[in-house]
Design the sequence.
């Protein structure tokens, strides 16, 4: 290595070396040689903190031309000093210089190789940057060397010079890394990034902008941005907005996300999302525009709008169809029930019907009251298995078979027998579904009986009606066989006379099989409810039953509820 000219004070040479060096490793040996030769040291080393700040590493060294000194430098260069360890580590940790006049009385980890090289004294000064101690400069001499305060002071000045240089170099490295990183990010960005100056001329654009708008960077830089990517009809407004900002610095669109129309090099247009920001505080200003081609998003939005419109139209059609179906269902359901209850002498009538299914499903429960002549009235209630059109057809068959048979047959049991044969015939003829069955109660009410209204009733597999008299509530009639199952069902007639105030309650199984938090609603609960109805008229009794069933149900029952109440009045 050539020896630098040192006719001037060493500080001058150090300034020149630091100004000309491109790196610490390049500058360190030259610095140490200038300092070592001028102040009479045989060897020097520059120790700097690593990037993590965990230890000192040798950034460069120098020595006089001697094999033993060269060996000392070689071995020292492989070492690393944590804070507080060895001379370099202790000065780094404390931030204070240290002069050891006699290494033989000092804890010096390298004393073996130091002895071989004849090194007997050392001085270590901190390398101080504006951010603190970043390393140390170590100088060693042959033999004993007592403290020289003026030399130590000048060496500390050198340490500060090196620290300033080191801080500047690190800052430049970080800036370069940041610029390289930023350039890489801009180049790799999927969005278009275009920078322009205060006159509207392109300063730079990234590859995404080249690909999107069809301009090569070399062709775009220096041209007015408005002439490149702004459609002709919008250019005047673009230039006016730029001029207004440069004159007033009022940021009307800076930082805002705008959706505009852009133009490619071939003249075609595309929808873009634009955000403009000012870069730093330069004067005149420089701007960056971040643009994104939103053609695909617009197409997706149009497709979503189209699908939503189709869905809306489908929903409207479905609602219309459901309304039509519900209207048909209501008409069909209404045809299975009497339009109104007749006026029966000496008897109040009350009825409720509640479909178990919502919407367009027709239920299979029904009730009926019709006049037979000579003061006699037919009373019927029934329940068909299942729901829907087939159940409705069976319900209609039941209702009108009962009405027809009631004209010819004298006893209610015979009427139910005729109904049983009609159901079996319907099933056998293929008009029904296998396993069709139903339950029913049919009675004949004779209001002309001299002892008071008398009721003869027959039951085919149906829940027994409840009769409330002044003596309490009891089930009335004899249980019978399901209808539509076997040719000869067991069905019996039962006869009662209704005293004034007596209430007869006929109901379908949807009442007693409704689920409550305690289990099924049940016959006992229904009997207790009937007993507590007091002097309520028949309509109020039927309404109270419906309210109790609906109010106590855990969920809406899938079964229909039909209730028919008869209350004898005073004659």
Sequence:
């Amino acid at each position: 290595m050539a020896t630098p000219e040192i006719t001037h004070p060493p500080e001058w040479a150090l300034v020149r070396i630091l100004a000309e060096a491109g790196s610490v490793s390049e500058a360190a040996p030259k610095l140490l040689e200038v300092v070592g030769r001028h102040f009479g040291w045989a060897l020097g080393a520059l120790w700097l903190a690593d990037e993590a700040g965990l230890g000192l590493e040798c950034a460069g060294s120098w020595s006089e031309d001697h094999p033993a000194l060269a060996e000392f430098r070689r071995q020292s260069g492989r070492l690393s000093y944590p804070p507080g360890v060895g001379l370099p580590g202790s000065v780094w940790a404390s931030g204070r210089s240290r002069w050891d006049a006699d290494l033989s009385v000092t804890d010096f980890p390298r004393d073996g190789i130091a002895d071989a090289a004849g090194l007997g004294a050392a001085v270590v000064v901190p390398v101080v940057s504006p951010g603190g101690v970043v390393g140390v400069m170590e100088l060693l001499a042959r033999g004993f060397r007592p403290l020289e305060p003026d030399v130590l002071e000048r060496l500390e000045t050198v340490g500060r010079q090196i620290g300033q240089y080191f801080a500047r170099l690190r800052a430049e490295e970080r800036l370069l890394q940041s610029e390289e990183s930023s350039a890489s990010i801009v180049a790799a960005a999927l969005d278009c990034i275009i920078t322009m100056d205060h006159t509207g001329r392109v300063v730079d654009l990234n590859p995404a902008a080249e690909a999107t708008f069809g301009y090569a960077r070399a062709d775009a830089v220096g041209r007015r941005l408005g002439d490149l990517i702004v459609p002709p009809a919008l250019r005047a407004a673009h230039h006016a907005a730029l001029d207004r900002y440069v004159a007033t610095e009022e940021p009307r669109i800076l930082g805002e996300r705008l959706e505009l129309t852009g133009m490619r090099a071939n003249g075609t247009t595309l929808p873009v999302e634009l955000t403009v920001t000012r870069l730093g505080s330069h004067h005149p200003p420089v701007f960056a525009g971040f643009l994104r081609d939103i053609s695909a998003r617009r197409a997706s939005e149009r497709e979503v709008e189209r699908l939503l419109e189709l869905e809306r139209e489908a929903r409207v059609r479905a609602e219309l169809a459901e309304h039509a179906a519900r209207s048909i269902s209501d008409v069909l359901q209404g045809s299975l029930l009497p339009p109104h209850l007749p006026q029966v002498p000496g008897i109040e009538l009350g009825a409720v019907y509640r479909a178990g299914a919502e919407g367009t499903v027709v239920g299979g429960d029904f009730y009926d009251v019709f006049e037979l002549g000579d003061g006699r009235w037919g009373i019927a209630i029934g329940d068909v298995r299942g729901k829907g059109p087939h159940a409705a057809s069976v319900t209609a068959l039941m209702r009108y078979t009962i009405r027809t048979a009631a004209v010819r047959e004298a006893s209610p049991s015979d009427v139910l027998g005729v109904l049983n044969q009609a159901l079996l015939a319907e099933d056998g003829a293929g008009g029904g579904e296998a396993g069709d069955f139903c339950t029913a109660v049919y009675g004949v009410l004779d209001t002309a009986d001299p002892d008071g209204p008398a009721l003869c009733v027959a039951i085919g597999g149906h829940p027994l009606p409840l009769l409330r008299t002044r003596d309490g509530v009891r089930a009335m009639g004899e249980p019978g066989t399901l209808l539509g199952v076997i040719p000869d069902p067991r069905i019996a007639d039962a006869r009662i006379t209704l005293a004034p105030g007596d209430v007869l309650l006929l109901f379908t199984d949807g009442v007693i099989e409704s689920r409550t938090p305690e289990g099924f609603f049940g016959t006992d609960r229904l009997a207790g409810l009937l007993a507590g109805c007091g002097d309520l008229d028949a309509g109020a009794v039927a309404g109270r039953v419906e309210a109790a069933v609906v109010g106590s149900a855990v969920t809406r029952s899938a079964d229909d509820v039909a209730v028919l109440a008869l209350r004898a009045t005073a004659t």
